[in-house]
Amino acid sequence: MTAKNPSGPWSDPVWLKEIDGIDPSFFFDDDGKAYVVNNGPPDGKPLYDGHRAIWIQQFDTTANKLTGPRKVIVNGGSDISKQPIWIEGPHLYRIKGHYYLMCAEGGTERGHSEVIFRGKSPWGPFEPFTGNPILTQRDLSPERANPVTNAGHADLVQKPDGSWWAVFLASRPYQGYRFNTGRETFLLPVEWKNGWPIILPKATAIPGTVSSRGNRLADPVTPPKTFSTITNRDEFDYAEPGPEWLQIHVPKQRWFDTTSNPGKLTIHPLPIGLDAKRNTSFLARRQEDLKFDASTQLSAPPENGIAAGLAAFQNEKYWYFLGARRSGEQLQIFLERSAGNESQSFTRVLSQVPPSLQLRISADGPNYSFFYDAGGGWQALRENDDGSILSTEVAGGFVGTVLGPFARQE
Questions:
Q1: What are phi and psi of 92, to 5 degrees?
Q2: What angle (nearest 5°) sits at the alpha carbon of residue 403, between those of residues 336 and 406?
Q3: What domains lie within the chain, and their CATH numbers?
Q4: Which of 231, 260, 272, 407 has the most CB atoms at less than 10 Å from its CB?
Q5: What does DSSP say about strands 379-386 and 330-339: parallel, antiparallel, or unpaired?
């Protein structure tokens, strides 16, 4: 897609059918030529499971199409004799007369890493750095304090002051290999040594905080003694939600608005549950930390047949729904828990229906607790439930948990 301004309007997508793989990346050279590098199958029969290659092809920026021959510039990885797996996420740079090709290697889990190659042409040949990988956490004990794992898929950026930095993906487990926040974006300064970029020295844990001197990681890094609390509050006092709010699956109709009742989110519930692979009336934002409180104030459901509240969602089989529903003159506060093929529900009945109530989901690592306030202060409906059902290890995938208001017709 192309545009003259980052804010758009953007053109319709152009399909680059030659790319048989993933992670395509543009490279614009100083001579005006453009290229696309991507992960793809090797040239010929794979030698082992996970054997992939990095391909390059020139891109015509006038016609918006790939042109000319395609070529493998890395076969297998940094050392094919060791049968490296899943070379991917390529980025090509021209720095001080050299071409650098940086790739992820080792798969996206515990063995994830970042490796670097150098050549004199975009077409190669590329020599691997003898000090590869330039970023990984796979050589550290999983029992270390505050571990970060799955580090890789990096990209380089140079600031106007000349310093170099890397953004990359990694995950923060709270117990073993379990994490509910998916793959997150990290930032570290980059140090150049003998013409090669080093994101993190070997056997070095990714720090929780970074101080830097120029483009060097300060040594040692001293964590702060206290951590501030980050508060995000949304009054829905605008015409459109901000980009932090998302929906699951493609919406076929508009089921919410922020204008009919200014300062409030109005949901017109759909008869679709969280277990359906369809868009449902769930407006969510990502879980951003291992420890959090997420709460909302809502009007009590005005009639039977409507359930409304807060949901914590990983996928269609793994989620929580803390909600309320009217039952005649009574109000049911309930928690639904879906964990694969197992489901549970917990219900508390209030004799009267208050005009409004508050709901709260609190978490600390794997422990998720659920509270309500119907006018008499916070009451626990269920505490310290095993929220690891929302983890990547249990639920699969690596997108992380999302939370937010949800309502449905019953």
A1: -110, 135
A2: 60
A3: 22-217 (2.115.10.20), 256-409 (2.60.120.200)
A4: 407
A5: unpaired
